Each structure stands twice: as structure tokens, then as C-alpha cells.
């Protein structure tokens, strides 16, 4: 008998919302890195803004960890999320080093509107009443958009400028891909048991992440609007 792999909710949602998903994971900003035409001032803008974002992302990830420790029915969830949280420490150091290299002052970055919106959304997800299934869906989506996006810049035929390879490897590499797949398994398992109401909330949250990611790329590419 051929074993039938039951496809999870995430696969179904990605197919259902493929236009928006592709909009976030193959954005013109990423494609311009991939084809080597990127304007370095855009990269620098992204760098300064993403540093601010990642600092907000730390307490958000910690709040997901807290919910995992209370609600997850599999104790390995905590370990997966903890590894993600731990790697943010190194990520913040990387941003500081990279910013110094590119002469991007991190102390006086003006937070752009799209970034503010995204950070406010993260804050709203940190409320204790938000279900674990919903917030872990957001965590998966946020990480996966970066993973898929930057992995395009590492494909064989890509012309990514060598100066940007390190950034692309940070999110686009196989190790980070493995982490995203672990998160996806957690989400699929949580959603199998979720109520109809929770499922709708998780799907809406997934879509909101995709929109906010697109706006973040737009901002990086075009500047403040
Ligand atoms: C805007 C944004 N989305 C996702 C990630 C991945 O951590 C990031 N660093 N920044």
C-alpha cells in the first residue's frame, strides 16, 4: 500500500492564497537582489528598518515561547521555539556588525510607517488572550517569508552581489529552512485540533503577515511613503 501523506492546513492555505504568498516571497526587492540590480541604498534602508523589527520580534517570540510552555501538547515545541529565540541574539549582533560595515547608524533610525504598523501588529499578538495556535501560525509565517525569499537569492542561476550573500545565507540557508519546517509541523498539528473560530483567526493572521511583509519590502525598495 502506498502511504498517503495527509497534507496539512498550511499547504492548503498557501495554495489558496498563492498570489499574496508569492507577492511576499518573490517581491521585486528580493528579485533585485537575486538578479544583482539592487540599489545598495535600498539594502541599507532595509537593514536599518529590519534591525528595529528584529528587536520587536524578540519579545514577540518570547511570548510565543511562553504560550508553548503552557499550552503545547508536545514538549518539543518549546525546544523549537527556544532555538529560534536564541538565534535572535546572534542576529542582533549581526545587524550591528553589518550596519557598521554599510555606515548605517542604528541609533537614530527613523521608524517608517510600514515598520510601525508591523511592530504594532506584533504587539497585538503578544496579548495573553491570543491563542497559541494563532501566534505560532504568525511566527511560522514571518520566518517562512524570509526563508523562501532569501533562498531565491542563493539559487544556482542567481546573480546576488557578493556583499549581500551573508544576509541571504542567514535566512535562505538549509538550516533556517529546517527550522521553518519544524514550525510548520507544529502549526499543522495545532490547527488540526483548533476550533473553527481559531482556524479563521489563524488564517486571517497568516494573510495579515503576508500583507505586512509586502509593505515592508515596498518600504525597503521605495523609501518612506
Ligand atoms: C520584516 C521581517 N520579517 C521576517 C523576518 C524574519 O525573522 C525579519 N527579520 N524581518
TrEMBL record:
Keyword Signal in annotation: no
Keyword terms, alphabetized: Disulfide bond, Hydrolase, Thiamine biosynthesis
Lineage top rank: taxon: Eukaryota
Entry-linked InterPro entries: Haem_Oase-like_multi-hlx, TenA_E, Thiaminase-2/PQQC, Thiamine_Salvage_TenA
Assigned EC number: 3.5.99.2
Active site: 213
Catalysed reaction, written as an equation: N-formyl-4-amino-5-aminomethyl-2-methylpyrimidine + H2O = 4-amino-5-aminomethyl-2-methylpyrimidine + formate; 4-amino-5-aminomethyl-2-methylpyrimidine + H2O = 4-amino-5-hydroxymethyl-2-methylpyrimidine + NH4(+)
Residues that bind substrate: 50, 91, 143
Pathway field: Cofactor biosynthesis; thiamine diphosphate biosynthesis
Any single GO CC term annotated in Swiss-Prot or TrEMBL for this entry: cytosol
SUPFAM superfamilies named in the record: Heme oxygenase-like
MF (Gene Ontology): thiaminase activity
GO biological process, one term: thiamine biosynthetic process
Thiaminase-2/PQQC domain segment(s): 20-221
Family listed: Belongs to the thiaminase-2 family.
Protein name: aminopyrimidine aminohydrolase
Organism: Salix brachista
